[in-house]
Design the sequence.
């Protein structure tokens, strides 16, 4: 048997056309390259044109798509539309979903939830349904990192559902944006307190019937907690002067001052001058709206006052050239 | 219902014929389809007549592999791209493939088996042989890959530089 086999093997080499990589169809090349590591794929792209094309397509399928779920209402007929945008590294494809498909949520990495343009009429029934479902699915929607509510009006009847929704989604978010919204309730303070991934929080030109003050206090507390961990960007419509001063003073006592950005909207000029007055009274040197850090001479908190808003942002000056040109400084700050 | 004792005769492109049990051929999507759809007489499947060009030597290797794997679960478990790994080839399979690795052969047999496994639709064998080939190029330089795969560079220097620049952004 052994001799027969070897004779046949030799025969096959002589008799058949040369088998090699270039004889294999593309599907088989694809099958082979799916077993190759990403770094090896990058090298395989340099081998020849055909292998390069196949390696490219393997690389593209490997980069997992992310999804943006958008709920919005059509202005003309007040119906709710649900869109799902699949974002590949190369670009996005948007597809319209007709219903909230529970199965679909389980399968996808939804990382951005957008709710926009809900009026009183569409805002009531359909959006309550969505809020309910999203809260229910929060265990499968555990990849959400961004929540955007824009131009949304929820009726008072949606309060319980909205609370449930915030509790399920906000703690996993890195970025939360609420803009031009009228809500029955703000994001609860205890939810903010456990949102340890939060880095951007913008509550702009929005009103909540209750809980807004508590929410703002908690957000500012969160910024001060994270002062030496990471830069946090916050925008608030409601804030007490005392808690801002508290944050201000905490920053002044830091050994190594860090960056953050705090915008306060809808602040009257009286409120703003009160803030400036309190900060000046606390004894920090003020030069053109910049309060100097007592320990590090090149660190300041810049207080930018405007018509109805003001912004607090630390500015760190570091010498751009150490020798001969000590006057040139590079300014580091976060203004967005 | 598959009767394990039922025999199937396969005829290869070079005229040889092999008789095997249905227990083996059930792993080949193509042969199963041929038997059920085409209503072949006396369960004789002429592989050459239906555009599957598999020679006798390759078929013998395929049957050897099938005999070892006759009790594998069907259907073959599909794996997602993330679950795939090239280093989980069973020891028997590794030894089986190693036997072909001779200087004169230059992976001819491996390519022949990959093609045959694809055409006969034997998922387990295809997966294993593709992994084997992938392992040969894993961790190799571009020149080594060209040598192993016997491919010629058909890029211009500018194109190569362009790809290298792109790669620089995604090296881990």
Sequence:
């Amino acid at each position: 048997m052994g001799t027969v086999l070897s004779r046949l093997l030799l025969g096959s080499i002589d008799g058949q056309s040369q088998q090699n990589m270039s004889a294999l169809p593309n599907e088989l090349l694809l099958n082979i390259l799916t077993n190759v590591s990403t770094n090896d794929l990058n090298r395989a792209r340099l081998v020849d044109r055909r292998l390069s094309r196949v390696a490219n397509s393997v690389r593209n399928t490997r980069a997992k798509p992310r999804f943006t779920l958008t709920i919005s209402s059509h202005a003309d007929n007040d119906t709710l539309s649900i869109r799902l945008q699949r974002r590949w590294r190369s670009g996005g494809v948007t597809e319209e979903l007709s219903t909230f498909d529970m199965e679909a949520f389980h399968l996808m990495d939804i990382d951005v939830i957008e709710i926009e343009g809900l009026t009183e009429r569409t805002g009531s029934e359909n959006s309550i349904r969505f809020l309910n479902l999203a809260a229910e699915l929060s265990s499968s929607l555990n990849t959400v990192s961004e929540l955007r509510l824009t131009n949304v009006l929820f009726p008072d009847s949606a309060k319980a559902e909205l609370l449930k929704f915030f509790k399920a989604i906000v703690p996993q978010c890195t970025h939360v944006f609420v803009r031009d919204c009228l809500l029955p309730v703000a994001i609860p303070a205890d939810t903010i307190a456990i949102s340890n991934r939060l880095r951007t929080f913008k509550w702009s030109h929005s009103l909540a019937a209750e809980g807004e003050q508590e929410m703002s206090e908690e957000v500012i507390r969160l910024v001060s907690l994270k002062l030496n961990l990471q830069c946090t960007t916050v925008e608030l419509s409601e804030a007490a002067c005392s808690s801002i001063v508290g944050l201000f003073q905490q920053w002044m006592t830091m050994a190594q001052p860090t960056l953050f950005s705090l915008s306060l909207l809808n602040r009257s000029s009286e409120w703003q001058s009160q803030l400036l007055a309190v900060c000046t009274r606390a004894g920090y040197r003020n030069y053109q709206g910049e309060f100097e850090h007592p320990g590090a001479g090149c660190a300041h908190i810049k207080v930018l006052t405007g018509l109805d808003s003001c912004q607090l942002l630390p500015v760190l000056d570091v010498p751009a050239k150490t020798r001969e040109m000590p006057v040139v400084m590079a300014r580091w700050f976060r203004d967005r | 219902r598959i009767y394990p004792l039922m025999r199937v005769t396969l005829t290869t492109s070079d005229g040889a014929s092999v008789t095997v049990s249905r227990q083996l051929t059930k792993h080949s999507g193509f042969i199963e389809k041929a038997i059920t759809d085409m209503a072949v007489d006396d369960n004789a499947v002429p592989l050459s007549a239906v555009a599957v060009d598999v020679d006798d030597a390759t078929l013998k290797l395929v049957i050897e592999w099938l005999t070892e794997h006759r009790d594998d679960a069907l259907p073959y478990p599909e794996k997602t791209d993330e679950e795939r790994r090239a280093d989980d080839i069973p020891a028997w399979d590794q030894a089986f493939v190693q036997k072909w690795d001779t200087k004169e052969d230059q992976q001819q047999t491996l390519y022949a088996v990959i093609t045959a496994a694809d055409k006969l639709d034997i998922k387990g064998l295809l997966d294993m042989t593709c992994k084997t080939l992938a392992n040969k190029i894993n961790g190799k330089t571009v020149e080594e890959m060209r040598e192993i795969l016997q491919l010629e560079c058909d890029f211009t220097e500018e194109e190569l530089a362009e790809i290298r620049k792109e790669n620089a952004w995604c090296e881990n």
Summary: Chain A touches chain B through 40 residues (CB under 8 Å). Residues 1-17 of chain A have pLDDT under 50 and may be disordered. Residues 29-62 of chain A form one domain. Chain A has three domains: 29-62, 65-238, 241-336.
